[in-house]
Amino acid sequence: MIKALTYEQINEIESHFIYAREDRLRVQELTADIAEESSYAIDPTGIHGTKITDATARKAVKVEKETRELRLWGEVVKETFEYFKRDILMLNLLSMLYVERFSPEEIMDRLYIGKTTLYEYRKEILRYAALKAVSKGLIEV
Q: Per-residue pLDDT for the chain (141 aa), expressed as one digit of tens each?
């Protein structure tokens, strides 16, 4: 059970929801870059070999670490949306908060909820996302 998240943890979780699309594009970009640098060629013996420099290998390790974390955060976002699909109000709130980027006032008007309800639902979403992030080793609580 997660009792309280720090301000930094809340910001980290929310930033991955807000920038989920950009994170996915970043993963694609990084993996494409390293794939282009790793050229394959047939060696003189006729056995398939590679021409990968030490610099390319070091970059690949760095890219793997960065993309691994971004992919895991992408899974947290996806699993959170999947979990709240069964509750249309929560799904709409998730979308309005993190995809459409509506202000709290706009969300309250559109969903016919009060401020307390909005922030309680947001807290529920963040708790679920935090549980997923903890299970993937992304944050510690």
A: 566 889 999 999 999 999 988 888 888 887 776 655 555 444 555 555 555 556 666 766 777 777 888 899 999 999 999 999 999 999 999 999 999 999 999 999 999 999 999 999 999 999 999 999 999 999 987
Burial track 103-119 (b if 16+ CB lie within 10 A, e otherwise): eeeebeeebebeeeebe
Instruction: Tell whether pTM > 0.85.
Output: no
A 10 A CB-CB count for 77 gives 24
Helix/strand/coil for 48 = strand
Give Cβ neighbours of residue 78 (< 8 Å, ≥ 6 apart).
none
CA distances from residue 33 to 30, 79, 87 in whole angstroms, order as listed: 5, 28, 40
Alpha-helical runs (H) found in 85-135: 88-94, 104-111, 115-135
Q: In angstroms, rounded to a whole number, what is the distance separating the alpha carbons of residues 23 and 21?
A: 5
